[in-house]
Write a structure and sequence with these properties.
This protein is an alpha+beta fold and about 210 residues long. The chain has 3 helices and 7 strands; from the N terminus they run αβββββββαα. It has a 7-stranded antiparallel beta sheet with strand order 4-1-2-3-7-6-5. The structure holds zinc ion.
Length: about 210
């Protein structure tokens, strides 16, 4: 393998890194959108509860914002013909005054063969009744908005941090006469890096943008 092969290999690697960087930017942008939407819902949830209910042949699913939390409920009646609701699928939206998440599953009487999950952690609740014998499953998940906001804010934060760091590095390298792309000493050739070939004149801003 000659020097040409090494250069080609490095170009391929750089292209791969570039692709990953773009993917990272895209994911961060999407995550930022979710972060903003979740933050707005979080504030709104103290005044209004938004509820979406989806009824279908085998059960009911619903999602609700409730005073700082999101509650998701799942009622699956597959195999439990007595409690099966009417056929047909429909989605309903409801807006009510804000209330704390209510666990309606606690009103259900335990039946024979029920297995129950009752799990809580810092405002995260998982309550579930499953009956393999009768084939029904009732579940409620409550997730606080701070969890969602923290999770969706992580990527944009990491992106911003990386961006700032590479900016600072580029500035520092330029001050010390180093190529912002590969770190090679370019004091003798300030317009073009002899090592990686990056132009450092008018196009230095474009080179900076990819970093
Ligand atoms: Zn260079």
């Amino acid at each position: 393998m000659g020097a040409k092969g090494a250069v080609k290999g490095r170009l391929g690697l750089e292209r791969e890194i570039d692709r990953m960087r773009h993917l990272f930017t895209l994911c961060s942008a999407l995550s930022l959108l979710l972060f903003v939407a979740a933050s707005a819902r979080w504030v709104r949830s103290y005044w209004l509860s938004d509820t979406i209910v989806w009824r279908h042949a085998d059960g009911v699913r619903s999602g609700q914002t409730a005073r700082g939390s999101v509650a998701v409920e799942l009622f699956s009646f597959a195999g439990d013909r007595q409690t099966k609701p009417g056929d047909g699928s429909r989605i309903q939206y409801q807006r009510t005054e804000a209330s704390a998440p209510v666990n309606s599953l606690l009103d259900l009487d335990a039946e024979q063969g029920d297995s129950v999950v009752d799990w809580h952690w810092h405002g995260v609740d998982w309550y579930e009744i499953q009956n393999a014998l009768r084939g029904h499953r009732y579940a409620q998940f409550v997730v606080p908005f701070w969890c969602i906001v923290a999770a969706t804010g992580l990527l944009p934060l990491a992106w911003t941090k990386g961006r700032l760091r590479s900016r600072l590095r580029a500035r520092r390298e330029r001050r010390f006469g180093l190529c912002p792309s590969c770190g090679y000493d370019i004091r003798a050739t300030p317009h073009r890096c002899p090592e990686c070939g990056v132009s450092l004149g008018a196009t230095s801003a474009a080179g900076d943008g990819a970093t």
